[in-house]
Amino acid sequence: MSLKKLLAQSIIWRGFYFFSILLVNVFLSRYLQAAITGNIYFITLVFSFMQVLLSLSAESGIIYFASGNIIQRNKLISLAGWWSVIAGIVMIACIYLFFLFDASLDKTLVLPYCVYGFLYVTGQLFANYSLSVYYSKEDYFIPNFLLGIVNIIYVLIIPSKSSVADVAKQQLIMYLFFATFFVGGVLVYISYIIRNRSEGAFSFPDRKNFNLFLRYSITALAANVIFFLVYKIDYAFVKYSPICTAADLGNYIQVAKLGQMLLVIPQIIASVVFPRTATGIDRMRINNAILVMARIFSQLFFVALIIVAVTGNWLFVKVFGESFNKMQAPMLLLIPGIFSLSVLALLSAYFSGKGKVKINLHGAIIALSVMIIGDFIFVPQYGIVAAALISTLSYAANLAYSLFHFYKDYSISWMQFVGWRKDDYQFLFSMLKKKTA
């Protein structure tokens, strides 16, 4: 399949899935409001960090070794399935021990938190591992369609009223929220098993290939853990800032989640770049596609900046509710950083596909250093505005490091990344024609 057709299919079906995530975010925020929503997303943040650790970044190894036909996909998916369940059990043990050693915590929360943690970690790993195998086969329809449908069903369950219900109904909504991760992940995993059972036995890789797989994944894990901290550690600084309220945290996390939604298209494209680079196919075309998309992103984010500056204060309250009235300023400061991340997503996929994950690791370390130092100094005094500005500076530092190494592989000038060109849109139009042809 051609690169342009792959990009078109990925954008359509991954776009459908990410749109369903946006719907969940909007409806959940309007129902639970800023303070409670911020608390739920902060809990999810902690679970996400544990999921990154427990995943061992095997999804990166799956794409690399499956795309290069080094290890059979059915052996990789078998290993992934077992580990998904084991990781969920480990998560339960971690939560139980945390409550055991912290006497200040309400012990009645042990059971629900253990359930939340298991559903989230196991479901996310089932989904991420299965998506990796599907993407290595250049199949974007089935997994994203299933995940999107699960999210849409959850949106239909959320009560339509904007006022917060009693505690029992809130708890039910939370159980269902975490259940969506598990149900979606299991559905995608089972769908792969059913659709590909004729490709060979579902068994484990041999010891030699397993060691290669583990070594690559562990290296990627270090980069992914640091990347996670770069993207999320600012939440902790905001939560524990003496001048920030629970509503401030909810507003800031909502800004960050909107920033992540602006990264949807770059991440979709990156999901094509990684496996294609790993196969060695169309390398020059991939390099050119990265340049074209970077230039288009710079225009799109410029438009987004203008829209937020003109309508942001009204728009955010209209969409998310009256409690989200502090989003405009941090969003304006974060948009340039999201542009940096959009280009970085493509470059990180490029380096991962070439087996140069250490470049991603070193760039993430630079960004994390900027983030921690800046947040430690400024967030306690200036709150969510400072957190947004420091995030942008850290993302820009990471991008600068990756660009330096990309120049070594592909000699270009800085203006080739940001200079606007009319013929770039011919690339997009031809890509859409490939899809509709």
Strand and helix map with partners:
Elements lengths: L2 H53 L2 H10 L5 H29 L8 H27 L4 H17 L9 H29 L11 H33 L6 H17 L1 H16 L3 H38 L7 H26 L3 H53 L5 H4 L5 H13 L1
Structural notes for this entry:
The chain has 437 residues and is an all-alpha fold. The chain has 14 helices and no strands. The protein starts with a helix and ends with a helix.
Key structural traits:
mainly alpha
What is the radius of gyration computed over CA atoms, rounded to a whole number of angstroms?
A: 21 Å
Oligomerization state of this entry? single chain
Order of helices and strands: HHHHHHHHHHHHHH
**End-to-end CA span:** 13 Å
Structural class: mainly alpha
Strand content: under 5%
Major sheet characteristics: none
Short description:
With 437 residues, the chain is an all-alpha fold.
